[in-house]
Automatic annotation (TrEMBL), chains A, B:
This is CinA-like protein. Belongs to the CinA family. The lineage of its organism: Bacteria, Pseudomonadati, Pseudomonadota, Gammaproteobacteria, Vibrionales. Signal peptide: none annotated. Coiled coil: none annotated.
């Protein structure tokens, strides 16, 4: 891959296209072996195009196809190929029609976007004004793509990937199953998977997306043993599995929708993190009836201060005041200790945890919020309620079963 | 810069070191002109080192200095230089002492981290087990640094940057003033700055960090006109200036601390975004007494539903129920319209806005939360309360002055 642009080279924006393309190519069996970033200067781009063409079979070039004077990738490729640029009348017409459709006249500067190096093949861009193109240089197939992430991604998926697959039909195509775990480290997971005999062409990958670890099961496409192996991996992850092909938040959204349970949340330590997070997903948002953030816990008297009893009182008060089925609460204790509580019609569960790692305050709020959601997940799916959680040591836990009135 | 590592190359982690180094180098007057990313394979790294050495004066290499078998950067450099690796006894002793200090014996695998290419100069790493080193190849000065971001950053600041400055004393050293704006686009800012005559060596840069634009004023170090020019730029940004060397959140923290005002927040549309955000800063966290997130606004009757009156009722109820000086509220209206309210002892202000851009729901919650904080900033600093805001069209606004009882 060759990324162009001063903003990327000088760190004003992070090159998210690069990370995305790298991941997608790897998933599809076309792992990148080299990535280069250069600025906007015509000569620099042209030289880099030549260098890349000399050492790779395929290069995907990103950026520099816009209408402004500092968009020079097309001209650089013409220079590298030692050809002129020529007007592509098909794209010029397409561009003009798009502007007219919106009641505007095409500005002259956009004509530049219909100029391609002689001999290049146009690649359609249904969502933007910059068409892509492909051309060969020194026997290397080069694809040119726009920098706008949505346009870039669509062009890769719809146009470039099919061409790569047609050109390299024997490249192992792979499927990926994604499993998300919480509360267990990568090395522990690795040990748990050791007994699983992977068939040829299967491979495991890990991606740490704190506080979760994404386990990726790579396999040949439509292999007969995919579901067998995936089930074995899921079994090994055990009750640390928080999402099968989806995140914990999505899992919770599905669980809450299916069970028609409603939530209220009282946050002291987590300060709105959980409430805000729940609002990122339509299903969890619908279930969330009320969220409170309290700078001081006004729900308990400080006289007989017992942190576990206090956080359970908060969770219960949240549940009862909002008139819903589930209450979740986080309370401060002291010196890195956090109390978390779950209140339900079937009983209450409370826990005091302490982090074993150097977490920033922000990361700790994330961990504690995840832990609360995970308590609810365990409750809703009938799992062990007080598991060991990596990065968080449990100092105390309390279960108050519901009192059945006679 | 040369970044090494399969995780970076295949997109499993984002190369934050690259963006950071690019920005720091640019700020110090040593702008990068090329960045390459390669995997973990010995040959690939060695070839890339040679290529980089042929086209650059200085290369900073990052990653691959760890104790494990896939950390091969040192060996690759020795291969590129056609020399052997040799034990650096100073670093071996330093490593052993560190392990002993923690009551541990140094594992054998760490000996590898004391091996450097013959002729290389050791670079100290006070915070990690991987020392850095520098060596010349084809007349190019190459620095080798560990991948751990905190170690990498400290090594650059303390060791590499001083060496670069000593080697290139005539490189223009620059200072940067950072100004943050909200509610105004880059092209509008650019127009406003046109009348300002920048002295030689001054330059303006923009970094879009939505919903803010960071304006960077680059200047020669200790130039006599820095404050004059910076003041002129601040004047041109006008009341869109939300932070002088600090973010809006930090600005609000300072304003709230100085004024000893306390906040309560009632969020319907923004769903906890503002409350969670306020909790990221110690000063704003201290000022925040209570935050509510309501799935339905139980504070107003739906009979006489007037969105502006409703959001002001929410803000007022939040303020009065929590017994504090400031109430902020967000309410849904319909179809992309959001009502925002500020309630104070000096009167209430409400506004209905609509986005002109295609914002994701998450981004819209961010914009609306920023708008609420910006209303409070304008109130506390005596600015115009209903400004034009780019990306948000104001549909309606309402000011209810405090009723003075006779």
């Amino acid at each position: 891959m060759l990324s162009t642009g001063e903003e990327v080279l000088h760190g004003d924006i992070t090159d998210t296209n690069a990370a995305w393309l790298s991941r997608r190519c790897f998933e599809e069996g076309f792992a990148l072996n080299r990535r280069v970033t250069t600025g906007d200067a015509l000569d620099d781009i042209a030289i880099e195009l030549v260098r890349c063409s000399q050492v790779s079979d395929v290069v995907i070039v990103n950026g520099g196809l816009g209408p402004t004077t500092d968009d020079l990738t097309t001209e650089a490729m013409a220079m590298a190929m030692d050809v002129d640029v020529e007007l592509n009348s098909y794209w010029l017409t397409a561009l003009k029609e798009r502007f007219e459709k919106n009641g505007r006249t095409m500005p002259k500067s956009n004509i530049k976007q219909a100029m391609l190096p002689e001999g290049a093949e146009l690649i359609d861009n249904p969502v933007g004004s910059a068409c892509g193109f492909s051309a060969e240089l020194n026997g290397c197939l080069m694809f040119f793509t726009p920098g706008v992430p949505s346009e870039f991604k669509q062009m890769f998926e719809d146009e470039i990937l099919p061409r790569l697959q047609a050109r390299y039909p024997n490249t192992a195509k792979r499927e990926i199953q994604r499993l998300y775990s919480f509360g267990v480290g990568e090395s522990t997971l690795n040990d748990r998977f050791e007994a699983i005999d992977l068939p040829e062409g299967f491979e495991l990958g890990y991606r740490s997306a704190l506080p979760f670890i994404e386990v990726k099961v790579f396999s040949p496409r439509q292999h007969s043993e995919i579901s067998l192996i995936t089930e074995a991996i899921k079994h090994a992850i055990g009750d640390n599995l928080v999402g099968d092909g989806k995140s914990l938040l999505e899992t919770m959204g599905d669980l809450l929708r299916e069970s028609s349970l409603r939530l209220a949340v009282a946050e002291k330590f987590t300060g709105g993190y959980l409430t805000n997070w729940l609002n990122e997903n339509a299903d969890t948002q619908n279930a969330l009836t009320q969220g409170w953030v309290l700078s001081e816990s006004s729900l308990v008297t400080e006289n007989d201060y017992n942190p576990l009893a206090a956080v359970l009182a908060m969770a219960t008060a949240a549940r009862e005041n909002a008139g819903v089925e589930i209450g979740l609460a986080s309370g401060n204790v002291e010196a890195g200790r956090v109390a978390l509580g779950l209140s339900t019609a079937m009983g209450d569960w409370g826990i005091i945890v302490k982090t074993g790692r150097k977490l920033t305050n922000e990361d700790y709020r994330c961990y504690a919020s995840t832990m609360m959601l995970d308590m609810l997940r365990r409750y809703l799916t009938g799992k062990e309620m007080f598991p060991e959680i990596s990065a968080l040591a449990t100092l105390e836990s309390l279960h108050i079963p519901v009192e059945i009135e006679q």
